[in-house]
Design brief:
Pfam families: ABC_tran. The chain is 33% helix and 26% strand. It is of the alpha/beta class. The chain has two domains: 218 residues, Rossmann fold, CATH 3.40.50.300; 73 residues, Alpha-Beta Plaits (2-Layer Sandwich), CATH 3.30.70. A hairpin with a 2-residue loop joins β8 and β9. α3 packs across α4 and α4 packs antiparallel against α5. The N and C termini lie far apart (56 Å).
C-alpha cells in the first residue's frame, strides 16, 4: 500500500482585513499543501495574493480562521515557520554593500544557531543557485538575474522544507528565468513544497501541480494542472467535408475561416486523434498543440466584460 503524501500546510477559513479597507483582503480561504508539490496562487493585482502569503509565513496574524503546519505538530506555529519555512519576496531582500557570500553568511547566522553548519549551508545555497562565479562580488553589482538567484539562495540557506516565492522571475532575461525554473523543479523533486505567484502563466504551467485563483480575497476556482483538456488548433486549405469532420466529431469545434479546435480530455486518446489527423494531412495548413489551460481559465475568470 502506497504511503500517503504528508500535508505540509493547512488553512481553515483564514481571513484578514486592513483597517483602512471596507472589505476583507483575505476572505475565508481554506487549502491544503502536500509535500513535494508546487501550488500557484494567481489573480489580478489587488486580489490578496501577497497578503495571503504574508499570513502563511507569519508576517501577518489572521483575524479569523486557523493556520497549521501538520508535519511539525510538535512545534508551535512560530517555531515551525522559523525553522522550516522560507519566503522569497518580490523585492530584493539583501544588503547591496555586502558580497554574495557575506549576505548568505549574515542570514545563515540568523537562522542557524549551530555555527559548524554555517559554511555547509552557505556553499550549498551558492551551488544550488549557480552563484559560484559571483560569490565574492558585491550584491549591488550583480545583474538582475543574479540578484533574483541571490534572493532564492538566501531562502535556501535556511534549509527550508516549504518555500514561498512571490514573482521570483520578474524583470529578468529568458536564460536567467530558465535557470531559476530548472532550480525550482529540482527542489520540488527533492520533496520541497513550493507556493508560487507569477503573472507569467506559462511558468505556472511548467512548474506547478495545482492552481488557486484568487479574487477579492476569495478562492474562486482551483485546477489541477494535468486535469484540464489539452487544446489542438489547426487550419485547413479548404473547409472540411462532412466525412472528414465525422472522424473527429466528438471533439471538433469549427471556429470559422477553416479554423478548427480539438479538446483532448484524455491523453490516452492522442493516438486515435493523430491517426484521424493523418487522414487529413493533405488538407492541414497549420497546426498548433497547446496545453495553456491555466491561461484559458485565468482569462475566463478575470477578463472584464466589454461595455
Amino acid at each position: 500500500m502506497a504511503a500517503l503524501t504528508p500535508t505540509m500546510l493547512e488553512l481553515q477559513q483564514l481571513s484578514f482585513g486592513y483597517s483602512a479597507s471596507t472589505r476583507l483582503t483575505v476572505d475565508g480561504v481554506s487549502l491544503q499543501l502536500k509535500q513535494g508539490t508546487c501550488t500557484a496562487i494567481l489573480g489580478p493585482n489587488g486580489a490578496g495574493k501577497s497578503t495571503l502569503i504574508s499570513l502563511m509565513t507569519g508576517l501577518l496574524e489572521p483575524q479569523a480562521g486557523h493556520i497549521e503546519y501538520p508535519a511539525y505538530a510538535q512545534l508551535s506555529l512560530k517555531q515551525a515557520i522559523a525553522k522550516k519555512v522560507a519566503l522569497v519576496p518580490q523585492d530584493f531582500a539583501f544588503y547591496d554593500e555586502l558580497s554574495v557570500y557575506d549576505n548568505l553568511a549574515f542570514f545563515v547566522s540568523i537562522s542557524e544557531k549551530n555555527r559548524r553548519l554555517h559554511r555547509q549551508y552557505i556553499e550549498s545555497a551558492i551551488a544550488d543557485c549557480g552563484l559560484e562565479n559571483v560569490a565574492t562580488k558585491r550584491a549591488s553589482t550583480l545583474s538582475g538575474g543574479y540578484k533574483r538567484r541571490l534572493n532564492i539562495a538566501i531562502a535556501l540557506s535556511k534549509q527550508p522544507d516549504i518555500i514561498f516565492l512571490d514573482e521570483p522571475t520578474v524583470g529578468i532575461d529568458p536564460l536567467s528565468r530558465d535557470a531559476i525554473i530548472a532550480l525550482l523543479l529540482d527542489l520540488k523533486s527533492q520533496g520541497k513544497t513550493l507556493v508560487y505567484t507569477s503573472h507569467l502563466l506559462y511558468e505556472v504551467a511548467q512548474l506547478c501541480d495545482d492552481v488557486l485563483f484568487l479574487r477579492n480575497g476569495k478562492i474562486v476556482a482551483s485546477q489541477a494542472i494535468n486535469s484540464a483538456p489539452l487544446t489542438l488548433n489547426f487550419t485547413t486549405v479548404s473547409r472540411l467535408s462532412e466525412q472528414h469532420i465525422a472522424l473527429l466529431a466528438e471533439q471538433l469545434t469549427a471556429l470559422g475561416n477553416n479554423h478548427y479546435q480539438l479538446l483532448i480530455n484524455d491523453t490516452s486518446d492522442l493516438s486515435r486523434v493523430f491517426t484521424a489527423l493523418g487522414q487529413l494531412s493533405h488538407e492541414i495548413k497549420s497546426l498548433n498543440f497547446s496545453d495553456n489551460q491555466v491561461e484559458q481559465l485565468y482569462r475566463a475568470l478575470f477578463t472584464e466584460p466589454v461595455c
